[in-house]
Amino acid sequence: xxxxxxxxxxxxxxxxxxxxxxxxxxxxxxxxxxxxxxxxxxxxxxxxxxxxxxxxxxxxxxxxxxxxxxxxxxxxxxxxxxxxxxxxxxxxxxxxxxxxxxxxxxxxxxxxxxxxxxxxxxxxxxxxxxxxxxxxxxxxxxxxxxxxxxxxxxxxxxxxxxxxxxxxxxxxxxxxxxxxxxxxxxxxxxxxxxxxxxxxxxxxxxxxxxxxxxxxxxxxxxxxxxxxxxxxxxxxxxxxxxxxxxxxxxxxxxxxxxxxxxxxxxxxxxxxxxxxxxxxxxxxxxxxxxxxxxxxxxxxxxxxxxxxxxxxxxxxxxxxxxxxx
Length: 325
Prior knowledge:
Layout: H1 9-33, E1 46-50, H2 59-72, E2 77-81, E3 93-95, H3 101-104, H4 106-115, E4 119-121, H5 125-135, E5 140-144, E6 156-162, E7 190-194, E8 203-209, E9 212-214, E10 220-221, E11 230-234, H6 239-248, E12 253-258, H7 267-271, E13 280-283, H8 284-287, E14 298-301, E15 303-306, H9 309-323
Parallel strand pairs: 1-5, 1-6, 2-4, 2-5, 6-7, 7-8, 11-12, 11-13, 13-14
Antiparallel strand pairs: 3-4, 8-15, 9-10, 9-14
Helix pairs in contact: 2-4
């Protein structure tokens, strides 16, 4: 939200509520650290990929990258997710290639499609871990989000930061977009900067786009072959990042349409946005919700996280050492 990027009259009016939010969060965290509230300790190591701000920082590409890197090194990885945005009520539940994004959430389906990793969803992380360990021999569990879910103990914490927006006005909810204050970063194992300018203690991540992929035919087409004006939609945490990426790659955008993160789409809604001669671009996260009613002019653009060789080594070394790999 734009009001979270600057300080205004609204910020100060909401500041008392932010103080209350911080106080409740701080006390709750202390209760877990003092073992007054019980937390679950997984029999295998747990690594949390989360953030201290609300949505749109790039956690999912980091999770996909990390899963692929560990799989390539012979590590048996499992992933858990809350399944945010899904309609399913029975938990825990395994996510497969046949799972509906509408039911289990778009991000879990996307992660499974990209990595084939065993993945379970539930608001109760313990349930998800127990389900995975009952069915798979796993060396490590990666949790997609859940940095503030202190009911689950963790062995390592990674935080993803938007390198452009950073921490906005530095207020916690609702006056700002933070779940925890920036000093929380002093206690995590790695800080990943998504775009922008990384600070000395951060690992810079860039999102590299691939060819556009047709939702209906699975045709791959280089982006520089799209010569006419196009339409783009995005139902992600920070849609402008997607639109800016397309424009930097030479795509002329006649129109853009922003939707809520995790929004469910329907065919009629998208047909109104572009005629069948105009390419309609969307993110891969949006595409997993639209394939069932895809049209010939609908395309998605996958992006993959990339790190420098040095950052890759620094990020993976503590994990592999802990696992004895």
